[in-house]
Design brief:
2 copies of one chain form a homodimer. Chain A folds into 2 domains: 200 residues, Rossmann fold; 91 residues, Rossmann fold, CATH 3.40.50. Chain A is 44% helix and 15% strand. A 6-stranded mixed sheet of chain A has the order 1-2-10-7-8-9, with helices on both faces. Chain A has a 4-stranded parallel sheet with strand order 5-4-3-6, sandwiched between helices. The termini of chain A are far apart. At the A-B interface, helix 12 of A face helix 12 of B.
């Protein structure tokens, strides 16, 4: 194992001063429906609205003084851009966020509100990468990857650590499976803080690159990005894939309508706002609920950033 | 004072076994925006989704064995019907809920799901009252009023008591102002458990019967019910009005667009679901925020039952 428990403890220390210790909620109604005890770790209540704050805080916090002086850069159309902007602000570091021109203006404004410097580019991955590269070369800023970075993974692990501190006897810990950064961190948390706690990912059938990667033993990609779970369209990386191969038990895939139904259940029954990607593990649990019967299941509710004017129900 | 502290303590004991002790949430972003410290008591997370559960539990719990045997009846198109159905189920009592024919089927199903016996009637107040009366006469069931009943008021008080136990030094406690049952209970809680804690109600300009009642000294009514805050269309009663006259400092009225804006802020920034009526006190605070500067303000978030397919934004 390339990570040891001290690395996770260090991440917890790094993250704690600037992140919420988010609550763990339960719903007796959803427990009845699922046939098991579900503990929801509410990262939708995290600063900037998603667990990504944790990885960004740890990655920026671990930079050297000279690196901090030169700033950080990332490209993102989603939560990681906001997380880097806010974490950098908290730590007194300049953050450059490359965003596609056609990103919703509300997202650009959120990044700017957190003090991030927005640079717009064309909406292709190549344009995003080359624009970030230019900023790196011009400013000396450190590039931060949203999921394939050990400090980001360790920062993400802190959500699972907190959940296991509150509920040490979880049988299973579930997260959405996107670029692999959250599930890799959560698997490390379960390995070092759990009591025989299995880790299971939820993934949309429509972007099941991770499921296929674990089958084939190499990093697979998706032919389309046609899922409502817009945070889960990304691929695995060389840093997180080995951790996942070693520590994640399995991936349960779900249909789009199951994601929407699970999201709506959590909205209506728990009265909390989650984004579609966030509903995927609960959808996976409901799809195969026979296997979870009477177990204690923790679910990381990854985020709650959604346009309330544009809902799938 | 017709109520003493022992009555409230008794209500707390009666309510606690079957209600959630709901969390108190804060948002640094909303604090910045409001210019004061706001403590949100999340009754939207209460069983059946609203504070009304507390009043129903206390009122039914305080019935004699013979009365419990005969059951309870109320008429409601909203949260109180669900509250009575669920509280009665918890306490092993039969509940008859009179609902207008044109009530949304989702609400009728919710009452039936909680074990309530739904009787449909025409959608006039007269039809609701006469149908409830018939059931009373036929079954001997006790009629429960949603807001003008001392046991309901005392049950409602328990939300404020819990909030003041968690935050004993609130300067101000705010609630929506509808039929007067919540604010009367909250005012009793502030009187007996607060430390010079003022109580302020929020009310829509479009149904400002309570504001005018406090001005005139007698119970006023509304000419229209034209507000998005559908829980606040009701009038004061002879049981709660004297308490309110004695213990409520003032009422701040708000425009419809202010209610929608406050609701959206709480949804987007706190990631929690509240119904329009519930947003009214925060709208009132924002409208007159100069007067609240640097104060510690508690707000009872009254409920979160809303059709997510039909939002005002």
């Amino acid at each position: 194992m390339i990570v040891d428990k001290n690395d996770i403890e260090a991440a917890c220390k790094q993250v704690a001063p600037f992140a919420h210790r988010t609550p763990v909620l339960q719903s007796s109604l959803l427990n009845d429906l699922a046939g098991c005890e579900v503990y929801f770790k509410c990262e939708n209540f995290q600063k900037m609205g998603a667990f990504k704050m944790r990885g960004a805080l740890n990655a920026i916090g671990n930079l050297s003084p000279a690196q901090k002086q030169a700033g950080v850069v990332t490209h993102s159309s989603g939560n990681f851009g906001q997380a880097v902007a806010l974490a950098a602000k908290n730590l007194g570091v300049t953050a450059h966020i490359v965003m596609p021109k056609n990103a919703p203006s509300v997202k650009k404004e959120a990044v700017a509100h957190y003090g991030g410097i927005v640079t717009e580019c064309e909406s292709t991955l190549a344009a995003r990468e080359s624009t970030a590269k230019e900023i790196q070369e011009k400013t000396g800023a450190t590039f931060l990857h949203p999921s394939n970075d050990m400090d980001v993974i360790l920062g993400n692990a802190t959500a699972g650590v907190e959940l296991l501190q509150d509920q040490p006897n979880l049988d299973i810990l579930m997260t959405p499976f996107g670029g692999g950064g959250l599930i890799a961190g959560t698997a490390l948390a379960a390995h070092y803080y759990g009591n025989h706690c299995k880790v299971i990912g939820g993934e949309p059938f429509n972007v099941d690159d991770a499921y296929r990667s674990l089958e084939s033993g190499k990093i697979e990609t998706n032919e389309t990005t046609n899922t409502i779970a817009d945070g889960l369209r990304t691929h695995l990386g060389d840093k997180n894939f080995p951790i996942i191969q070693e520590l994640v038990s399995e991936i349960i895939r779900v249909e789009e309508h199951e994601i929407v139904a699970a999201m709506r259940l959590i909205w209506e029954r728990m009265k909390i706002i989650i984004e579609p990607s966030c509903a995927v593990p609960f959808a996976a649990l409901l799809r195969e609920n026979e296997r979870f019967r009477n177990q204690k299941v923790g679910i990381i509710l990854s985020g709650g950033n959604i346009d309330v004017k544009n809902l799938p129900f």
